[in-house]
């Protein structure tokens, strides 16, 4: 099969982890006779440095024309002083918004090899940890009007507006319920309806949509309680659906339960056009350029791309199995390294996963 993949390495550890994901995709091409065309594009701080813009129009155009987009990470302290419309993060937000990617799917699953890397007690882990955060991605505080101004008392004040419309809530609710129907059929909708109007509307629409899915066990949960329940007993969750900022925060928290945020992939989709596949972690500027980052989240994002964008379930499964095998043999990058494991670099981890892919594809 021929596919065109727009590739944005971005900033910080972005280039290192994306190199490993492309290495893995190339190994899949060889093993299965596919042809992937990689279109390497600029976005984020490095794009600003080279073009003066975080998201050059050429990048957006090429992404729209691709079958799928693979992204590493953007941002870093180097660009902290820039005006808000020039910040690297703006590239990511504009890309998500311009491609209409309202649904961000973040699967959080404990791999057995990482049990001891998780900060949770084994008694809690034994009950299971396999959930998906469905994060609304192009609404809420991230996209509401924001401004900094001087108020009537002469003091500087800042504000960010949190807006959600019925249709925005309804479409993400549908995504969550449809996903739950393919899983354990439990949806937890997370909001702050005891305080926020936007959350009360969120809850009302969720309740309307749940009527269409009588098989799904549904519950509402306040976001503060959810933050606690994730640590107390994550086994209660199957699909968590929530608005943009809550999803950003809760998915980082949930990811850590699996041992490291460096393990969690994501996919963002809209109603049409290419999806965006990226790890949920950031650009980790503190460890950039040292070849010690964990490439697994990006490699698993590429696996999600094969499964959901290209309808290649076998190829996708082989990548996931290869990752589990390598970790099962005791290899670990610095973030998941504990006593008794063999610490490997970012590129070595990519090589080991490729070797397993070759073995598994022949089997
Ligand atoms: C994420 C990241 C981004 C977000 C940042 C880099 C803007 O934290 O994908 O979770 O907040 O969405
Ligand atoms: Mg985040």
Secondary structure elements and pairings:
Layout: E1 2-10, H1 14-32, E2 35-41, H2 45-51, H3 57-65, E3 68-73, H4 88-98, E4 103-109, H5 122-125, E5 130-136, E6 146-150, E7 156-160, H6 166-181, E8 186-191, H7 197-210, E9 217-222, H8 223-232, E10 239-242, H9 244-256, E11 267-269, E12 276-277, H10 296-309, H11 313-328, E13 331-332, E14 342-343, H12 346-362
Parallel strand pairs: 1-2, 1-3, 3-12, 5-10, 8-9, 8-10, 13-14
Antiparallel strand pairs: 4-5, 4-11, 6-7, 11-12
Helix pairs in contact: 1-10, 1-12, 6-7, 8-9, 10-11, 11-12
Magnesium ion is lined by residues 248, 252.
Describe the structure.
The structure is a single chain. By secondary structure, the chain is of the alpha/beta class. It has 2 domains: 1-101 and 275-363, Isopropylmalate Dehydrogenase (3-Layer(aba) Sandwich), CATH 3.40.718.10; 119-257, Isopropylmalate Dehydrogenase (3-Layer(aba) Sandwich), CATH 3.40.718.10. The protein has 12 helices and 14 strands. Helix 1 packs parallel to helix 12 (346-362). The longest helix is centred in the N-terminal third of the chain and has 19 residues, at 14-32. The chain binds 3-isopropylmalic acid and magnesium ion.
């Amino acid at each position: 099969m021929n596919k065109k993949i727009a590739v944005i390495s971005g900033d910080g550890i972005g280039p290192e982890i994306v190199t490993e994901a492309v290495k893995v995709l190339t190994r899949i091409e060889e093993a299965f006779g596919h042809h992937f065309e990689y279109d390497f594009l600029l976005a984020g701080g490095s794009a600003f440095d080279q073009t003066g813009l975080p998201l050059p129009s050429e990048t957006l155009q090429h992404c729209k024309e691709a079958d799928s987009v693979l992204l590493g990470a953007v941002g870093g302290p180097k660009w902290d002083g820039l005006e808000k419309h020039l910040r690297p993060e703006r590239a990511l937000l504009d890309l998500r918004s311009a491609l209409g990617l309202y649904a961000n799917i973040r699967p959080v699953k404990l791999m057995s090899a990482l049990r001891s890397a998780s900060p949770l007690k084994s008694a809690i882990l034994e009950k299971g940890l396999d959930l998906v955060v469905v994060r609304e991605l192009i609404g809420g505080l991230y996209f509401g009007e924001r401004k900094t101004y001087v108020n009537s008392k002469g003091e500087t004040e800042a504000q960010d507006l949190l807006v959600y419309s019925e249709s925005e809530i309804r479409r993400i609710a549908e995504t969550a319920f449809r996903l739950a129907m393919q899983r354990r059929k439990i949806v937890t909708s997370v909001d702050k309806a005891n305080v926020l109007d936007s959350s009360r509307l969120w809850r009302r629409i969720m309740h309307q949509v749940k009527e269409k899915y009588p098989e799904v066990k549904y519950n509402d949960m306040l976001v503060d309680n959810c933050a606690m329940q994730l640590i107390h007993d994550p086994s209660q969750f199957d699909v968590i659906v929530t608005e943009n900022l809550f999803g950003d925060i809760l998915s980082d928290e949930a990811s850590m339960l699996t041992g490291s945020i460096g393990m969690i992939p994501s996919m963002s989709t809209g109603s049409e056009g290419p999806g965006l596949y990226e790890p949920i972690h950031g650009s980790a500027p503190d460890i950039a350029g040292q070849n010690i980052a964990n490439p697994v989240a990006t490699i698993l994002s590429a696996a999600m791309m094969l499964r959901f964008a290209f309808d290649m379930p076998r190829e996708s499964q082989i990548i996931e199995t290869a990752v589990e095998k390598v970790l099962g043999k005791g290899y670990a990058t610095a973030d998941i390294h504990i006593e008794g494991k063999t610490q490997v670099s970012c590129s070595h981890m990519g090589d080991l996963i490729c070797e397993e892919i070759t073995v598994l594809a022949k089997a």
